């Protein structure tokens, strides 16, 4: 590994792509596994936790790592595709060491760990060598002073800490996509996960919850107080919130719905009134809906919303008043490609595709799939028998329901022994 840098900081390593000897990307770095024995001996780095296809996490021994540079990690040989399971003697550097309260006896400095560095020893093993510490903020300073010290000069790295914070781990999670953050939270020890959940803001936690397996969603929500759980559900998309509430005990579900804002709860209750494997049960009640007097410029401004998924941004649904589902009469859709070709001042009613067939809320999952495939669509309107728009089914809604139960937590590749 002669071309690797002398020292690598773990927080900068997380998220880097991992390449095989042929130059093909096989995964991303998600954490580091170390054997922490004492505070006087530098811990040996056992390997990387890598996320590979299917969002599976595997163990990559450091003996398989041939090079680490500023933007890539290179490996040699075949990777063992068995799911990573942490052993009692192993410590996750990102997941368990960040935010630990430590002390430097020589200087009297006390602070929290915000990064850890590793480097190669003379025997070519990688070891944890330095610890980056941040003191608490003092006076008018927004951030406390930082220090980088040798591993052996720090106390508190091996002791179990019941009240370990989550500030620096939260900072790392906030830089990840929700699906990646969900994977990291899923693999954290229970007490560490609880600290992270408590520290995440409601909007971010809602985004992450939508990407977690159902059992994790239920477990996290049941450990929150009802007021915060209701706030989280309000931040989630109504269809995901409805799916999650449906997995809760009936009395808990009703209590949370009562605590939610009436408008948010009404959307969720309406979705829950449809059978789960139907267009009504899968749809989102919040597509982009405009009146016929809106302009092309108005429509483009709405679909630019970064919070919209690509599928929801592909179509604008044009209806008579009222524009909240169930709307007034549904007039048709305007495709994003058509909108981009029209003058901005043109009325959106002039760019309508009124020939698109609508789905009924009782349409089965197979009928929804056939409809999207037949017309090469990524989304389709759901309209009741009176011509009122109820919502829209997107291809990602469909896949969520068509994939096997627990797909978020399943592997795509074959397991072999670690």
UniProtKB/TrEMBL annotation:
Residues 352-410 form the CBS domain. The keyword RNA-binding does not apply. It holds the Pfam family CBS. InterPro entries: CBS_dom (IPR000644), CBS_dom_sf (IPR046342), Mg_transptr_MgtE_intracell_dom (IPR006668), MgtE_N_sf (IPR038076), MgtE_transporter (IPR006669), PRC-brl_dom (IPR027275), PRC_barrel-like_sf (IPR011033), SH3_actinomycetes (IPR058838). Keywords: CBS domain. Gene3D superfamilies: CBS-domain (3.10.580.10), MgtE N-terminal domain-like (1.25.60.10). Signal peptide: none annotated. This is CBS domain-containing protein. The lineage of its organism: Bacteria, Bacillati, Actinomycetota, Actinomycetes, Propionibacteriales.
């Amino acid at each position: 590994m002669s071309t690797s840098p002398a020292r690598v900081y773990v927080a900068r390593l997380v998220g880097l792509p991992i390449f095989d000897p042929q130059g093909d990307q096989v995964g991303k770095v998600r954490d580091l596994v170390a054997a922490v024995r004492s505070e006087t001996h530098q811990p040996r780095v056992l390997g990387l936790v890598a996320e590979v296809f299917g969002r599976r996490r595997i163990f990559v021994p450091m003996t398989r790592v041939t090079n680490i540079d500023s933007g890539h990690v290179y490996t040699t040989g075949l990777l063992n595709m068995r799911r990573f399971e942490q052993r009692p003697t192993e410590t996750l550097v990102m997941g368990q060491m960040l935010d630990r309260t430590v002390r430097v006896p020589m200087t009297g400095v006390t602070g929290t760990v915000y990064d850890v560095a590793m480097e190669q020893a003379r025997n070519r093993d990688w070891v944890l060598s330095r610890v980056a510490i941040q003191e608490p903020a003092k006076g008018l300073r927004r951030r406390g002073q930082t220090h980088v010290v040798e591993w052996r000069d720090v106390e508190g790295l091996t002791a179990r800490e019941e009240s370990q914070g989550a500030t620096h781990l939260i900072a790392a999670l906030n830089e990840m996509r929700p699906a990646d953050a969900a994977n990291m939270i899923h693999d954290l020890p229970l007490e560490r996960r609880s600290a992270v959940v408590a520290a995440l803001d409601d909007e971010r936690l809602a985004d992450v919850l939508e990407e977690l397996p159902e059992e994790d969603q239920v477990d996290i929500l049941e450990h929150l107080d009802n007021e915060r759980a209701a706030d989280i559900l309000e931040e989630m998309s109504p269809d995901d919130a409805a799916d999650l509430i449906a997995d809760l005990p009936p009395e808990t579900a009703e209590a949370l719905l009562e605590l939610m804002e009436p408008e948010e709860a009404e959307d969720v209750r309406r979705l829950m009134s449809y059978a789960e494997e139907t267009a009504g049960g899968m749809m989102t009640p919040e597509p982009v809906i405009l009146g016929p007097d809106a302009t092309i410029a108005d429509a483009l401004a709405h679909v630019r919303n970064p919070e919209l998924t690509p599928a929801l941004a592909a179509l604008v649904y044009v209806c008579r008043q009222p524009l909240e589902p169930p709307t007034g009469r549904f007039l048709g859709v305007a495709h994003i490609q058509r909108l981009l070709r029209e003058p901005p001042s043109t009325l959106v009613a002039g760019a309508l595709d009124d020939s698109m067939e609508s789905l009924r809320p009782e349409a089965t999952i197979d009928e929804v799939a056939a409809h999207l495939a037949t017309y090469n669509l990524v989304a389709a309107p759901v309209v009741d028998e009176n011509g009122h728009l109820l919502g829209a089914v997107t291809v990602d809604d469909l896949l969520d329901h068509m994939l096997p139960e627990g797909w978020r937590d399943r592997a795509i590749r074959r397991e072999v022994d670690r």
